[in-house]
Amino acid sequence: MQLLSDRILNMAQSATLAMAAKARELKEEGKDIIGLSLGEPDFNTPDFIKEAAIKAINDNYNSYSPVDGYGDLKQAIITKFKRDNGLTYTPNQIVVSTGAKQSLANIAAVMTNKGDEVIMPCPYWVSYADLVKLNDGIPVEVKTSIATDFKMTPEQLEAAITPKTKMIWFSSPCNPSGSIYSKEELRGLADVLVKYPNIYVVSDEIYEHINYVGGHASMAQFEDMYDRTITVNGVSKAFAMTGWRIGYIGAPEKIARACNKMQGQITSGANCIAQRATITALNESPSRVQYMIDEFKVRRDLILRLLGEIEGFKTNVPEGAFYVFPNISYFFGKTLKGHKINNASDFSMFLLAEALVATVDGESFGNPDCLRISYAASQEQIIEALKRIKEAVS
Questions:
Q1: Mean pLDDT for the chain overall
Q2: Please, how many CA atoms are within 13 Å of residue 136, restricted to the half-sphere of its CB?
Q3: Quick one: three-class SS letters along 149-196?
Q4: CA distance 254 to 241
Q5: Which pLDDT does position 254 carry in this prediction?
Q6: Which distant-in-sequence residues (6+ apart) come within 8 Å of 119 by Cβ?
Q7: Contact at 8 Å (CB) between 173 and 199?
């Protein structure tokens, strides 16, 4: 009898976490690694949020929380959706989970049957495809390119739809490309989807506030898409609360109740102290964390300028998140310092070995010609990292 299940044996390891682990190993060996692989703000959680957590501890919040979240946290989420997105939800449409990743896992589990197809514009976040495959679904990749800022067109969406299409999953702002769908672009996709009333949309908006162009748009804002859209969000990125592990959804009630049922058997309610702190985070104006977004924009402009000075890196201008996703296919087929570069994975490992800079290859995101570089690092680290990369490839 086989010890491990086919399910786990067929699952890919998270590429971002794998590279982070490799970088940690090299650091422990004494190597001076600059990590530009993880999607984690390098800011501390704001003091006003930490103070709310301390108060919750002193107020003796130490018991199991409701599976789908405290009632006053759900009210804070409802207020946030209305204030920031113009979306109206009721408490029965909200489910709080242990990070937005669990929110996505819940959705995949409760909505995917064997053979169901899920359309994913490439590039997409690394875990999307495996969450769908874990539940016997079929990821359908829609290729995009740097020429279109890595955004799917209505024509591409229409061409990807089949009688087996169950959902479309995408993020805006996008991890890894930083692309943002405008209201007009979302409306174009919605105009296709209205012809297929059984297709649901999973809109991952975890980077919503890390936006350099303003005017964040949500698919659920359209009346004809509201009842078919699951909006996923959380506090990890905008509030620098990655380790607090709080994510949430606003969804049609039937889907929200199903996610609540699933979560009740898997993890139950999210961390009680983190939930109390999240109430404070969401009730405050997003302007309280604008200083982080301003600094990320400075870093974006810095890294784009430095990449522009290196032959072989083809970049566009990301509008949000904290990543650049350059096309590095120029290097394919070349040999650099004894390393044969056949693909983006080879190039990423070359940079780790020769430049001591950790990045993530684009293949895991559905685009094998690109490389994800996070600029959630200090300006000094970015300057040093790009100096090393330039020296390595020249």
A1: 96
A2: 7
A3: CCCCCHHHHHHHCCCCEEEEEEECCCCCCCCCCCHHHHHHHHHHHCCC
A4: 29
A5: 98
A6: 140, 142, 157, 160, 161, 165, 167, 168, 169
A7: no
Beta-carbon neighbour count of residue 368 at 10 Å?
Answer: 16
Q: Examine the pLDDT at 123 and tell me if it is beyond 90.
A: yes
DSSP secondary structure string, 290-349?
A: HHHHHHHHHHHHHHHHHHTTSTT-B-----BTTEE--B-GGGTT-EETTEE--SHHHHHH
Is 189 within 8 Å of 228 (Cβ atoms)?
A: no
Contact 50/265 with Cβ under 8 angstroms?
no
d(CA 147, CA 158): 20
98 CB-near residues (< 8 Å, 6+ apart):
245, 246, 247, 267, 270, 271
* CA atoms of 169 and 325, how far apart (whole Å): 19
The C-alpha angle with vertex 248 and arms to 243 and 254, in degrees rounded to 5, equals 150
Q: Is the pTM of this model over 0.90?
A: yes
150 confidence band (pLDDT: 50, 70, 90): very high
CA-to-CA separations, 56 to 53, 60, 115, 201, in angstroms, rounded: 5, 6, 45, 36
Tokens of 105: 């896992």
Residue 154: what pLDDT?
98
* Tens digit of each residue's pLDDT (9 = 90 or more) over 214-238: 889 999 999 999 999 999 999 999 9
Contact by Cβ (8 Å): 95, 249:
yes
Element spanning 231, H or E: strand 229-234
Angle, CA 278 vertex, CA 275 and CA 279 arms, to 5°: 95
C-alpha to C-alpha distances, 250 to 74, 79, 312, nearest whole angstrom: 10, 12, 42
Tokens of 171: 């993020």
- pLDDT above 90 for 282: yes
Over residues 99-128, the mean pLDDT reads 97
Structure tokens at 47: 């003091």
- Residue 219 DSSP one-character state: G
> Which H or E run includes 234?
strand 229-234
Length of the chain: 394
Yes or no: say if 188 and 181 are a contact pair by the CB < 8 Å rule. Answer: no
CB 351 within 8 A of CB 359: yes
Helices (H), the chain: 6-9, 15-28, 47-58, 71-80, 100-111, 127-134, 154-160, 183-193, 253-266, 272-283, 290-307, 344-350, 379-393
